[in-house]
Design goal:
GO biological process, one term: DNA repair
Order of helices and strands: HHH
Helix content: 40-55%
GO molecular function, one term: hydrolase activity
InterPro entries: P-loop_NTPase, SNF2_RAD54_helicase_TF
Strand content: under 5%
Distance between the termini: 24 Å
Keywords: ATP-binding, Helicase, Hydrolase, Nucleotide-binding
Shape: flat
Number of strands: 0
Protein name: DEAD/DEAH box helicase
Amino acid sequence: VEDQAAGRAHRFGQKNVVQVIRLIAEGTIEEKIYELQQRKRELIGQVIQPGESMLSTLSEEDIKQLLNI
């Protein structure tokens, strides 16, 4: 949802500089959600890197996490 909102701010034709700031309080559920999102982004980045075998950089645990097993 946040990425979608940031994407809208950067829409085609935007001439002004757009800065997205995410405020997360330490020790909150928002912090845990953000950390989970970052881990999932890292896993996805490993899977879709061009020029590499899709599973070469993923451990069995990474694959289980990715598939929510």
